[in-house]
Amino acid sequence: MSAARERLSFLFTSTKGLILVAIAMIALETAFFGFLSGPMEEFGVRSFMVRNLGLDLLPQEREGRIIILYHTIAMAVVAIQAYMITGLVPMKRSQQVVVNAAITVGYLTSQVFGLWFAYFGHNYVFHGLFIFGQSLVFFAGVALAYALWPWRAEYRTAETDRARTRGGLDLERVAFFTMAVAMLGSALFGAVPGSLFGNGFETFLAEDVVRNPVKTPLQLAVIGHLHIMLALIAVAMTLILSRWFDFRGRLHKWAMPLIIAGTLIITFGVWAVVPFEAIAHIIINVGSFPVLVGSWLLVWFGWRKITRERLAAQDLTRPSARQRLAALLHDPLRFGTLWQMVYMNFVVTALGIFMAIQLDEIIRQWPWREERVTLTGHWHVLAGIIATIILLYYADLAGLKGRARQWFGWVVIVASNLAFGAVAVFETKRLFVSEAAQQTLVDYAILLTDIGLATVLVALAALMLWRLADLLKRRGRWRAELEEARRRGQNEQEVLP
Amino acid sequence: MKLLVCLLAVVLLAACGAAPMSAPPAAIETGIDPASWVRIAAGPYSSGPQGQAARLDHDYEIMVTDVTNAQYAAYLDAALAAGTVKLVDGDVVGYYPGDAYRGHKHEERIDPGDYLHVPGNTVELRLIFDGARFAAMPGYEDHPMVMVTWFGARAFCEAQGGRLPTQAEWEKAARGNDGRAYPWGNELARNQANYYNSQDIFEKVFGKGGDTTPVGYYNGKSYGAYRTLDGASPYGLYDMAGNVWQWTNDVTEGIHYRFMRGGSKADYGYMLRSWSSNNAGPEYAGPSVGFRCARDAQ
What we know:
The structure holds 2 protein chains of 2 kinds. By secondary structure, chain A is mostly helical. Chain A contains 17 helices and 2 strands. Chain A has 3 domains: 1-148; 158-330, Four Helix Bundle (Hemerythrin (Met), subunit A) (Up-down Bundle); 331-497. In chain A, 75% of the residues lie in helices and 1% in strands. A two-stranded antiparallel sheet of chain A has the order 1-2. In chain A, helix 11 (277-313) packs antiparallel against helix 13. The longest helix of chain A is centred in the middle third of the chain and has 37 residues, at 277-313. Chain B has a domain at 35-50 and 57-67 and 145-296: paralog of FGE (formylglycine-generating enzyme). Helices cover 17% and strands 20% of the residues of chain B. In chain B, strands 14-13-12-15 form a 4-stranded mixed beta sheet, with helices on one face. A 3-stranded antiparallel beta sheet of chain B has the order 1-4-16, with no helix packed on it.
């Protein structure tokens, strides 16, 4: 009994355990619901599952199911980011406990009961629990924003090589705080129309109304909500990596104000989409640029740091270009998190800018269905890249070392880049192939996407199985991680980490 | 790792290969008459995914199937002879009186003038022109007419004394008033409609995107070893889900796009739900877009 309690303590009180549980839950959800679409549907697996598992998949409710599915995954992702933030950013132990406890109960409740409601018949108590779980996640967000409040004296910084005001205000903490508050407001931005679903406001997917000349304020709010939440999750991940890489120096002093300003402007632009739809996009574009530059500065700093540290460890004082490159690439987990951010610029940002510039001249000359493919491909890739960054970072937290670290890191990078590149080709195929001649390209693009994604999922499964096997050991890695967490959390008032 | 890279290289190179060759399909007798119409009485119908109660206050008639290549070829010959359409660089064009322009964002002007009806120089077109007369490609006579713009579809229907159905007329004809998702109910079987990877006999030749099937193909009949389920709507219309998107008549204020309904051979099953729609500019012509006509009740 004590052994089980100890393990549960690891899984639900330590940062690493909490992240492990959330990733495992997402992995299970992805694996299970992956059987209902894509190649698994084509192989007839979906029909088998519907017949044998009592799934209730009315075609009239497809959009509602998808929205609940997205939200359950998003809640778990936000929870992972919250765990990372409470583990990386200084705050009181009690605050860390409140945030982690509330968000854990919240995302698990919404995930279990939301999916049950969506896919296994409509028990409205479960729907209520789905909403309750999300409310708990929101409450955890409020607690996190409070804990991150940057104007407390104890969080002033004297480090002169980090972005700070003359008064010692830590601008990185301000960036975290800004992101958290923006996320809370943006969650409400979606909650308002969400609360009216079924009360005269019909469920819809944003890509389905993109050509409607007149969108209702509630529709605009939903569209704004999904865009800003994903953008803020990306900002949060950038800041988490910033802490992980111990970002500092001149570049840090440039990056943090840019990220803060960009986050505020993007958020304001998205919120403005309801009253000022005509100019909202301009505001959002203005805000996106500084955030993008801030992320490039982090990449620059991080890659230089990785290279420098490796060369120092090898005692190479006058390295050749090849040695520098080898040093940069020697650790796929650290290199990969930043590379994925760079790759995002090719398959998401550049394509998005192209689509925006050529919207009327090219994209809107296609049937809506073709435009829809570009939109859904676009944001799926963005969400997928963020997921791989989380995965690479977690693999480091989990203590992956040696050849396993190399294999895991490179497999995730190569396979995900292959998949996302193939999706980018698929979503823009009409630029270079007609509908009648597309089948071969479509078949191979989908094949490469499936190979890439399946490979990432296999790597993820291997990581999860490794940690599961470790959990079964009496004195596995989990115990050391639990003891470390306990050591750090002994003093209730201690500022962590 | 090297093995993985080599495998990927092989797959990428293979993707550069040619598309499957088009070959004329064997003529198939479905037993459904493409020239038949059905009368639909005024009354209630289900609208949208929630199946909201809506109502049409007029009786109307609508074609039982999509317009076929043979029908359109015959129309073109007559229209060319009558001078209502003309050939310009191999394309069929005709006059349209234009739409009101309101200057909305993304709205394009549709001024009075000649517009494309059928692009002539395209491999996707299932018509042939010998310099004097149009004809359907052998084997494609009873397949739905594709590569026809909204202007071309509208002109055909007007020549028959009709018009394109409105979206409301189309949806009522497709699903009646019991809230069903597809013309026949709530379940979509692979042998009940022509959609992406529905594994019909044409997909074996042309790949997952398949090809059009003859109109009325999914009527419960067996074609050799391939048995279809009846895909008729409550009013007895065929191909109201899948095969080709169907242009509708609506001109919406502030946008130049025209709407299509029904999903197509190139779409996943969920696009075949009766309330799903697609849209494109009125000069768009595609290999998965066709139409059928409606007319006021005689």
